[in-house]
Amino acid sequence: MDYKEMAAAARGNMGPWCKACPVCNGRACGSHMPGPGAKGTGTVATRNYEAWQRVLVQMDTIHDRFEADTSVDFFGRRLSVPVMIGPLGDVKLHYGDKWEMEDYNSCILNAASEAGSLAWTGDGMVAAIHESAVRDIKRLCGRGVTTIKPWNMETVMAKLELALDARPAAIAMDIDAAGLPFLKGFEPPAGPKTTFELARIADACHAAGTPFVLKGVMSVRGARKAVESGADGIVVSNHGGRVQDGVPATADVLPAIADEVGEKVTVLVDGGIRTGLDVFRALALGADACLVCRPFAVATYGAGEEGVRDYLGQLARELGDTMEMCGAETTKDIDRAMLA
Questions:
Q1: Apex CA 329: angle with CA 328 and CA 332, to 5°?
Q2: What are the distances in angstroms from CA 98 to CA 86, 93, 108, 136, 306?
Q3: Alpha carbons 242 and 10: distance in angstroms, whole number
């Protein structure tokens, strides 16, 4: 199945907010929260999508015949495609009753692993979500990335200890999640973290031989702080607009961030990436790989694990086609010279 077919199949299974649009561009969901919408005006998610469409590629088919190699390295693991499934904290609340969060995580972890990629699992207000995800990642011999929200340090360290036991591919913190409306006033509290606190988390990860990734970096200044904190990777992300209105698109800030810290840390990006062409654009602007979230939720509601595998396959084919048309035999060959 292609994505449009999965979206059509999902429409009867979704809750009231996500419309399972043929193109997931943020327009229909707007500012609906709960739901997959964005905060305030609801325009940041749309801005993310549109920014990638403004990035044009240069065709170059004067080269030897080759079959594009779409694989990338992610902290010593080889991924079949530079796309991983982004984390969700409560799929039932935002997308509909078909999936419980624990079952959704199992679905995406299994399917991504079978397809040669990785899924990132979310952290929610129910402790069982994190605990179940950790068990699944351990069962899959570490083939997954677990995300921990910026709770108070006591809670973070307890969740971290549990996660490290599974020896995941990496542990992430969505540092910007303190801005989520439904975490305001929640116990344990979530909030910003100092570089000292982040260094403590990074040190615990490194002691266990696990990379630490900070998700939610949107400026050169923030990227420098992430490096200072000991992070091994960052995700250039505005949380799909769900934490703050009026911020730039990720595509617009990625190049400067990649130029500043790309030789020091792994640089990932998310926000509005929907096709293999978008993945090519992201790598050309300096990303090492991408996260895609909302369309994979739609894929699971439409076709379960098969939908996840099919969408990853679609992205790989689209990326490979673009690489061949632009003269990039491997993902390492993709650079800014291939953009118009």
A1: 70
A2: 19, 10, 14, 20, 16
A3: 23
**Cα gap 193→12, rounded to integer Å:** 41
The Cα-based distances of 194 to 152, 153, 191, 225, 226 in angstroms read: 12, 11, 10, 9, 10
Q: Is 266 within 8 Å of 286 (Cβ atoms)?
A: no
Nearest to 29 by CA among 53, 51, 49, 4: 49
| Residue 234 β-bridge partners | 214, 267
| b/e map 147-174, b = 16+ CB within 10 Å | bbbbbeeebbeebbebbbebebbbbbbb
Handedness of CA 148, 177, 264, 154 (dihedral sign): negative
Distance CA 144, CA 136 (A): 9
Closest CA to 123 of 85, 149, 99, 105: 149
Phi, psi of 56 (to 5 degrees): -100, 145
Domains annotated for the chain, with CATH where assigned, are 3-10+39-338 (3.20.20.70)
Which residues make Cβ contacts (< 8 Å) with residue 127, sequence separation at least 6?
Answer: none
- The DSSP secondary structure of 3-23, one letter per residue, reads HHHHHHHHTTTS-SS----SS
In terms of Cα–Cα distance, which of 280, 287, 323 is closest to 59? 323
Kindly give the confidence (pLDDT) of every residue in the chain, 340 residues in length, as a single tens digit, with 9 standing for 90 and above. Answer: 999 999 999 998 998 999 999 999 999 999 988 899 999 999 999 999 999 999 999 999 999 999 999 999 999 999 999 999 999 989 999 999 999 999 999 999 999 999 999 999 999 888 899 999 999 999 999 999 999 999 999 999 999 999 999 999 999 999 999 788 777 777 788 899 999 999 999 999 999 999 999 999 999 999 999 999 999 999 999 999 999 999 999 999 999 999 999 999 999 999 999 999 999 999 999 999 999 999 999 999 999 999 999 999 999 999 999 999 999 999 999 999 999 9
